Task: structure prediction
Amino acid sequence: MNLIIIEINDFELTVHDHKSSEQYNAYAFIEKDSVTFGDRALSNIKLSPDDFYSHYWQRLGYEEINSKNDNIKHYADLAYKQLIDITAKYPNDIKVIFITPAYYKEQQLALLLGLAESCNLNTLALINQDIINIENVAFLGKYRVAHMGLHHCNLANIAIKEDIKLNQNEIFNELGLLELVSYISNWCNQSFIKHSRFDAFHSADTEQALFDQVYKMLFQIINTGVLTDNDISLNEKSISVKKVDLQDKIACFFRALFEINDKNSLLHLTPALYNLISNTHFKDQCERITKPTFVDFIQNRLPFIEQQKGICLLDTLPILKQYQNNELKSNNAATHIVFSHYCVAFKDKPIYLNDCVDIKFSHPFSTQQTPESYAALISDGKKINLTLLKTCDVSVNGECIKHNTTLNSADSISNQKDQDFKLITVIEEF
Result:
C-alpha cells in the first residue's frame, strides 16, 4: 500500500504504514544551528525553558517565537521541520491521510496542507481523530470521547447511527500531560521542603531531575495502568510518593473533566488517559476504548475517501461493522460466569477468581476473598467491573491487561494457567 497515515495531536505524532507504526514526541529544543525533537528535547525543558517548545502542533500557525535559530521564526517552521524529518524515509509524492485534532480551525487545516505539499506529500484527506477512536464500541448511540494532549484534554460528542459523526467538541486547557507533570512536581517539591528542608527548584539542574523522575513515574502509569509507591531522590535526599496520595492528586488534577459530565453517562477515554483515571475514584464514571488498527480502518474506507471531491475535512464516516441497537444494551449485561462445568450467577456480591492448583480440590470461584484470589468481578446491573488484586497474567478476549477493566456479556477471561472463563447472559432460568 503506497500510503501513510499521520496521526496528529500535541501529545505525539504517529506515522502508520503497512509495516509498522512509529511515534514521535512533539517536543522541540532550538539551538543556533540545529533543532532537536523528542525526548532529547524534553531533557532541556527546565534547563533551558526559553529554547524549549511543545505547543507548535496544538497552536499550528504563524505565531512568532523568539528563536536564536534564523530558520525558525514561527510555530509553523517547527511543524514543517518535524514533518519533513519523520517522512524523509518515504518516497516523494507518497499518498498521505492526516488524522487531525477536532479543534483545528480552517486556517490550521489549510496550513497543514501547505506544509504537506512542501514536504512532497500527496494529501488524500483530513479525518477527525475522534470518529476513528470510537469505532470499536459495540452499540449505536451517543458517546462522549476524551483524550489527553500535552497541554489540554479534548472532549468530543460522537453519534453512531447511520454513520459515525462528530457533533460537538470542547477543549479543557491546562489539563495536558506536561501540566500534570508540573503539578505533581510542585507537590513533590513541597514534600522535599517540608521533610528535608530542600527546595528542588533552587537550581535548573535539580528542577530538571525532579521533572524527569515524575515524568517517568507518570508514563509508567500511562503505559501499564499500574500505580505503585515510588521513591524520588535528589542530591542524596529522598521522599516517598505513596500510591494513595498520588491517586488523590491525579483525581484533583482531572476533576474539571468530570464535574460537567452526567454521572449516569460514561466518559469514553483513550488508553493513555484511562490508565491514569482508572486508579482514581472517577474510575466508575469512565470506560476504556480501544483504538482500531488505523491502516485497516483507512484501507476499508479508501473507496469512500477517494470519491470525495477535493481535499476536505471528514467529520463523518460510513459504518462498516454491525453495531447492536442501543435499546438492547441493558439486556446485554452479563448475569453469569462459566468455567468448565461450573456456572455462578452475579447477585450483587463480588465474585472472586482464585488461582487453583488443582480444581478437583479447590474452587475457581468464591464469594469471599481468599489468599488465592487474583481478581474480583463486581456487577452493577449494567456491566461487570474486573479489578486485579495481584500482579499476574490475566487476559480479556486474548489481550493481556495490567489494569482494571469493564466487561460485557460474551467476554472471555484467561489466566496464567490457561484457565478460561466466559461471561454469559441468562434471560430466563428454568
In short: The chain has a mean pLDDT of 90.
